[in-house]
Amino acid sequence: MANHTPTPPAWADRLLAWLCPPHLLEELLGDLHEQFAEQVTDLGEQKARQLYVVEIVKFIRPYFLKRRVGHFAQPMSIPVSQGAHRFKTNEFPQPFFLHPDMLRNYAKIAFRTLWRSKGYATINVVGLAVAFCISLFLFLIAYLQLTFDSFHEDGDRIFQTYFFSNDPEQASRSAGMPLPLMPALKTDYPEIEAAARFIVVRKSLVEYKGRYFDKSVYLTDPDFFKLFSFPLRKGNPESALRDLSNVVISENMAQTLFGIEDPMGKPVELGSDGNRKQYIVSGVLADAPYNSTIHYDALIRVENLPDYQSAKDSWGASSHQVFVKLPPNIDQTTFESRLKAFAVKYFHGSLDDLKKKGAKPDERGDVFAVRLQKLADVHFGRELSGGKGAPIALIYVLMGIAFFILLIACINFINLSVARSFTRAKEVGIRKSLGALKKQLFVQIWGESTVICLIGFGVGLLLSYLLLPVFNATFDSKLTLDYVAQPGFIGLMLLVFALITFVAGGYPAWQMAKFNPVEVLKGKISLKRPGILRNSLIVTQFTLSCLLTCCTIIALQQIDFLRQQPLGFQKEQVISIPVGSQVNGRQVLQRLRNKLASDPTVLAITGSGVNLGKGKDRVTARGVLGITYKGKDIATDWLLVDYDYLKTLNIKLLAGRDFDRAYPTDSVNRVVITESMARMMGEANAVGTLLRDDHDTSGVKSQIIGIISDFHLYSLADENKPITMHLSHNEAIHYVFVRVAPQNLANSMDKLKNVWKEVAPQSEFMGSFLDENVDAWYQDEEMLSRVFSLAASIAILLSCIGLFAIALMVIEQRTKEIGIRKVLGASTPTIILVLSKDFIKLVIIALGIAIPLAWYGMHTWLKGYPFRIEISAWVFVVVALAAILITFATVSFHSIKAALMNPVKSLRSE
Amino acid sequence: MGRAYLGEFEELVLLAVAVLQGDAYGVVIAAELKQRTNRISSLSGVHIALYRLEEKGFVSSELGGATMNRGGHRKRLFTVTATGRQTLNEMRIVHNDLWDSIPTPSLA
């Protein structure tokens, strides 16, 4: 009790400071405190505190408030006429610390300080600019992906329908709908605001005045315009698709077909060979933005589907997507529960089948159900789109990397500021002893950081503007800075910027403002104080860099592994040509065979329904046949080929024979299967057996004539299915493969191009070598690994810049120590070791954290691949050695300089 | 009248400043007033009066020393100026005149 001096409540003082004109504050506070001290003796502490607060509340009077407000309005004006003499005293008015004049002063001082310490400022600006630039790109990619389809009005009310069936083997979802579903939905549920079918077809031929184009023509319903908010530039949304012969085209297509002509009412011919029809342009629709799932060139009515009449009442076939728009007062769950009755009414067949197989209702009580998927999720729904959707995890990884890089830049910033604060401690001490307030110092130092951040941000933006074309080219992306101007993105950037300035600038400023001037001026602030913070930040930095490096190397190894895998066919020397929709593939193939029959450089020619790898047309298709064979469920790729397929691709025949023109029945009901297919069928000698479905009693059964070794029809990232190959007279051949002689491949390609002009004049030649196509399979992984590599190198670069600068400062502060060590006989290597040791220790700790994390992360990632590498330990060893070596190199750059310095120089100043 | 107006409370404060003779600052003045008039005056009130008096030129002020029980804050010491003194004198004469003019029939 004896030591306890009662003090008035501090918050009340702050209240007064806020209420009272600043130049009167000191005397008033003094009086109040004096009175308080008296009242404590007279009335006791508690009562005194109460009275103190009452007293302060009484200061809320017009007299004080008016003067306070006046003080802001006219900062420095003091009534000269009457009150002037009271400032004859040696007291200066204390301005409010965020006074505009002071702010100007802070800015001026900030620029001068930065100008003086150019090296420090440059390192920070460069670091921040690079980090901003890269993370801007990454955020932009992520933002574009995450805002997919978000431009539709009422997007939260638009849904895609899908089937859910709780199959006992595996619950499955599918977005392929039968044609009669949408009309039935609309009849049974009149509350649905709009519903449209959406059939995504292959590129389709468009003819206008004898010119041919390949365009994406989509089949849909008139409700399309009520459903989505793609603006109709010309035409009336009510009537644009009223007629079956109406076609609505995109602005882009209008430009290519008609140029400056008005397209409205003009006839165009659409459709693939033998199935062409004339349509009348009835509307021009704005081009779909980049972040739209739906990309169209032209829209026509669903009823134009070639086999619409026969399929329109068939509930079994599933061919297209259906989108519905619910009214605002019905939510998804409510409507899904209403759809239960719908499933029972139209799908009792499927229901019975499932029940027979022993399917149990899921947690929502459904065995088979029609459900809804939000439009916003469609882009990410890999399951419903057949694996085509964007992997949302990848987007989070990108955002995480962007965040990591920003974090590393921030850590540099904090570390450098804290390290520099010791060289600036004297300045702070002197400012304080001259009467600067803590908050003034805070604002001043924080202002300097903000200036650096602002410059860094500006340079970063400039950098991204300049580098955008390079980035787009390298990563095959279509980013534009237009998206940067969107409010959501601006908000995100502002948030990031605010966070960086507050955290990275605020913390060191706060630390410095706290310095005790007496200790600083006595030289008592030691170097060791920020050790833990600085060290943990360096550890974090290096953990992130090493993590990214390990992941990059492993990802690259995996991609390389996928590429190196034997595919079961020989991809070299084979040119693949997409036939296109303008010509008949079968005819082109025949003409090509005739033309090249005598050419010695052409070794073999064949055709197929499916490309190998990703060709220049970027189309992938897959036909899978599911059959029940002797009680076993078998899923096999159902592949259309032509004669010489095995010869062209060098696929090994294991038993039986290849398709042969000598056997006329080969093109009707003969199949060649792969080893794994034979294994699945459980036939020891499959050649000669009939491939049949247990349930299918009618139809022609295919006889197996040959067994070939397994080959990869699709990317190794996808699961491999057994393959059954068949010939056909009438199924369309979409790709032609030509095996050429190994000498002068480029020449062969040119020759083929010329021949192509003769055999298929309407179709653009899009030939490419199969090995390129196969590489294109892995473009997602490729892109991922490129992003990883870029991020990892930037992370390492930034970490090293930070380390470099910190080492410089630490060594500067330890010059005397080094001098003394030298005088006492330490050798140059010893000194370098002493100086580098601390940093290397930190990097080793970082490695200890990063390696297990990297191992776990990549182990999880690799699990997604049916064919994958084992993570080998040498990756980590190499990364660890490299990290230590880089650290040592960075630090020793300064250490060597310091160690070689003449100790007389460093010690003389004292 | 040509001279500045002086309110009742202001007059009391001005008198207190005069009484305290160069040692006059907020708390002391408030204490003096409380002791002599037996009315509790808030510090804010006293200060407003003092500042008004200063603006009218009746008192002048300078910053004095800080003490521990003031939390290290300095005090502002007020002294009566010549104008102030003159005004007080005039006030006193007016008061006295008025008093003297009261008819006193019951004066013993």
Automatic annotation (TrEMBL), chain B:
Q: Which regions span the lipid bilayer? A: none
Q: Which organism is it from?
A: Spirosoma aureum
Residue intervals of the Transcription regulator PadR N-terminal domain: 16-89
Pfam families associated with the record = PadR
Record lineage:
Bacteria, Pseudomonadati, Bacteroidota, Cytophagia, Cytophagales
Identify this protein by name.
PadR family transcriptional regulator
Question: Superkingdom of the source?
Answer: Bacteria
Give start-end of the signal peptide.
none
